[in-house]
Structure formats: C-alpha cells, structure tokens
Amino acid sequence: MTAAHRASGPNRAVVASAAGVIAVLVLPLVAAACSTGEPVDGPRTLAVPAAYGTVQDAVDAARPGDLVLISPGVYREAVLVVTPDITIRGTDRNAVVLDGRGGLPTGVRVVDTGGVAVENLTVRNYATTGLTWIDAAGFRASHVTTYDNKRRGIEVFDSVDGLIEQVWTSGSIEAGIHVSQCDPCRLVVDRAT
Predict the structure, then answer these.
(1) At CA 183, angle to CA 180 and CA 186, rounded to 5?
(2) Closest by alpha carbon to 72, among 10, 122, 16?
(3) Which of 25, 48, 111, 158 is the most buried (most CB within 10 A)?
(4) Mean per-residue pLDDT for 73-98?
(5) CA geometry: angle at 127 spanning 121 and 128, to 5°?
(6) Are 66 and 89 in contact (CB under 8 A)?
(7) Mean pLDDT in the chain?
(8) Residues 81-99, buried b or exposed e (16+ Cβ, 10 A)?
(9) Which candidate, 74, 152, 166, 173, places its Cα nearest to that of 117?
(10) Terminal Cα distance for the chain, rounded
(11) pTM, 2 dp
C-alpha cells in the first residue's frame, strides 16, 4: 500500500491508480498504431503478381479480412496459411493455376486457423493434396478445380464449420474430397463433381 493510498482512502486511490494505468497503457498503443504508416481500418486487396511476386508472399503479408487476388498464370509453389479470416481468390478459375510439378506436397495448406476461403482457381500436380484445412474452424472452398493431385483433391482434417461448393476434382488415388477426425464436422458439400 502506497502513502497516497493510505492518505486518500481505498476508493480514491483505486480510481487514481486505474486512471494512471489506463493513461500509461493507451498512449503507447495509440502511438504504435500511428507509427506504422499503414491504415488500420478496413480490408486490403493484395494483388499477385502485380504487388507480390508469389501467392505465399501475399499470404504472409495478409491481415485478417484481406483478399489475396491472383491474376492468371501458373504459380509453382506450396502455400502455407496461418493468418485467420483471409480469402485467396483467383481472377479466373481455369487460368489461375497452382502447380506442384509432382514434387511439392500440398497446394494450399491452412493450419490451425479459421475463416480462410480459397476461391476460383485450379490446383494440380501436388504430391499429396491440392487443398488442406487442418484444425480449422470456419472455412470455404468455392469454385475450385483440383486434378492429378497424388492422394486427395481436397482434405479436411480435424476441422469444423466448413463449406465446399462448386468444386470439380479428379485424378487423386484416395479421394476427391476427404473429411476425417471431426465429430461433429458441420460441413456442407454442395455441387461437387
């Protein structure tokens, strides 16, 4: 107990103490938010390859709510997503292609995060799986084509509250769409071919 606390009584000291703490905590946060130079309000569109050379570069720069927008081209990469609530969208389902060349393990792998959507693109030639959600809550695959991925086109593992819609998948040894380790899954598969 400080001298000020003893002199002013418990209620007055707590209010003064709380006000002092709030002032100390709020001012550095405001200064930190202003010092980044980037707007903190609203989602952004991160364009690939115009602003970011690879899909992974854009995903790494994304914040929750952002859109990674991919222009037509063949992207030979494996993308790991750990940022929640982002959308990865191609501008043309047939002309935006993630290609694993038979050696990369997974096209888009979403791990331990929720709210990630993959839309309007093609994922092919991966050694394991085209699209994978692992331990995700709330996810979506929409207007996606997967083909010639070694084991699975789309895999959902230990994930809930998902939507897989308007997908075409072929050429995988185990399954076009594989769902496991969820109970209840709360997953809707709609118009899958």
Answers:
(1) 90
(2) 122
(3) 48
(4) 98
(5) 80
(6) no
(7) 85
(8) bebbbbbbbbeebeebbbb
(9) 166
(10) 70
(11) 0.79
Average pLDDT over residues 61-74: 98
- Phi and psi at 124, nearest 5°, equal -145, 160
69, β-bridge pairs: 47, 89
Asked if residues 185 and 163 have their Cβ atoms less than 8 Å apart, the reply is no
| Per-residue pLDDT, 95 | 98
| CA distance linking residue 87 with residue 42, whole number of Å | 14
Place of tokens 């994978």: 132
Query: Rounded distance, CA 8 to CA 17, Å?
Result: 12
How many whole angstroms separate alpha carbon 151 and alpha carbon 126? Answer: 9
Q: What value, to the nearest 5°, has the Cα angle with vertex 161 and ends 159 and 164? A: 90
Of 95, 117, 141, which is closest to residue 43 (Cα–Cα)? 117
Q: What is the pLDDT of residue 38?
A: 53
Task: Give 34's pLDDT tier (boundaries 50, 70, 90).
Answer: very low
Spatial contact of 143 and 118, defined as CB atoms under 8 Å apart: no
Q: Return d(Cα 142, Cα 93) in angstroms, integer.
A: 10
Give the max Cα distance, the chain: 79
For residue 157, give the nearest of 110, 121, 124, 122 by alpha carbon.
110
